[in-house]
Design brief:
Elements: H1 37-46, H2 52-79, H3 99-103, H4 118-131, H5 133-148, E1 157-159, E2 165-167, H6 168-175, H7 182-192, H8 198-210, E3 215-221, H9 224-227, H10 247-256, E4 260-261, H11 265-273, H12 290-304, E5 315-324, H13 327-331, E6 344-353, E7 356-357, E8 366-370, H14 372-375, H15 390-398, E9 403-406, H16 414-424, E10 435-441, H17 444-447, E11 474-483, E12 497-508, E13 519-527, E14 530-531, E15 542-549, H18 550-557, H19 568-571, E16 575-582
Parallel strand pairs: 3-4, 3-10, 8-9, 8-10, 13-16
Antiparallel strand pairs: 1-2, 5-6, 6-7, 11-12, 11-15, 12-13, 13-14, 15-16
Helix pairs in contact: 4-5, 12-15
Amino acid sequence: MANEPNIPVGGDEPLKPTHSLPRYSEPTPETHRRVSREQEAELALKNSQFAGGARILLTVLFLVTILSVPTIQFAYEMRTPRTEGRLGTFNLYKAYPAWKKIRAVRGPRELWRLLPRAAELKAAEKELETESVVSEWLLPRVQWVLSTKLGAGNEQVYLGHDRWLFYRPDVDYVTGPPFLDPKTMTRRAHAAAVQPDPVRAIVDFRDQLAARNKSLIVVPIPMKPGVESEKFSPRARSNAVLQNASFAEFKERLARARVSVFDPTPLLSQRKGEPGNAALYLETDTHWRPETMEFVAENLVASIRTAPVPAGRTFQLANREVRGVGDIARMLKLPESQQAYPIEIVTIHEVAIDNSPWRALKNADVLLLGDSFSNIFSLGALGWGESAGFAEHFSRALGGPIDCILRNSDGAFATREILSRELARGRDRLAGKKLVIWEFAARELAFGDWKMLEMKLGQPVPAKFFVPKNGESITASGTVEAISTVPRPGSVPYKDHVLALHLTDLVVEGREETAGLEALVYAESMRDNILTAAARLRPGDRVTLRLRPWTDVADQLEKINRSEIDDPTVQLEEPCWGESIKQ
């Protein structure tokens, strides 16, 4: 195992960036989320006084402002009716009552039925704010001025020195309140309805694995502002790797519970201090550089391997130059022609095994649970190449195949939740496993939902929901009973997203008996930070799509950030993959 770092946790003194940061004497319930602009405006209005003339003038200007955006949008849509020819992706016609709804009105007294619900108004308002022609044209240009001329980021991005960019939640993790402080955890538990204690969840998971003779190693990955702190604040020591004030207590409590932790912090601190070493993380992305990732993977294997490398497996490496735009740079939403944050170039080492592309094997004796730090050079959708991620290089250093469950976001629970559901469906993903490696971004310690999940093997039951046969593709239509949430484009580091749909009244092409048929469908909801038609669906909408078994596409799509239906009984049903959704 790696030794403890030779620096105090948090450095000699707390990191004090030169940028304006929120005060944490009274932490908010979710410290990675700033007070919204609407809340700031409401607080300002409650404490402001206006003269009579100013009140009228401000009211008129306010009405003109809020009416101008939908007016411009309406005029633009009339001039450019085809969606594919428009600048913005918002469709104002979605705010109109559906023709079916209009025909259902039986007189003036029922006109109230045409009024949109509060949730529908709020959703339309958010879409208009972020996807209208005004925002699509104006926002990148305003942000370019703010970033290049005034040195300001936005709600998700801080500007560092020498064109470095930092993700706000990562900064909040390093500079924020101790995540294990009882008051902080109580606020989070009450305000965000999460289980905030990572130690409790990790120990429980270890105990459930130990009951089946499986070992666990936890691997928390340090955040970029803590590793590259001197690029964010000149007060930081160049060789220090900073952590949240509770990180030392976190490790101590796990050590007392005899949970194995591989902490890369001291290794990265030592690597920073070596002469001639370049940056360890990408300049405009939240993640590490490929050589840093390989360094950590090799040291992790060195800390756990007690037997010689197995014979009969030959690994090959191929160098590939990758040009990418960082996820933080994309969150700035600058014009595509901007040169302030140019494309970054890295060299990845693609892994092959026995002259074939590397693939995870479900019957391997090691299982890796990982987030985007495992995916960054493995999932092409992230923009930094494929076949060269943490799983591939851990497998290469180990000298044999591994199994893995990877998901870009929610490292505190997402991969454990996938494992839990597989077990509940009667699929023993832990069969034959000796070791489970659980990798997650350290920010999850402060902001993640550390759900208590049961790893109990269930009995296979007959499927209640419709699923096509393996290799089959079928057209079906159904009514949206429920739909999972979708992030606002640009508000998260990941440009792609998958949502879940619960469909009822399913009608399947070529199937006569469809009474009471239902389906759980995963569908693409965001691609390249643009919402798809599926993301605009609402309960009650009727949709037609092509269905395929989720097992046919899971190897490629399981890694992408995904949201789930709230109903636990629906979550346990076998899902499908839906494509080409039409309304």
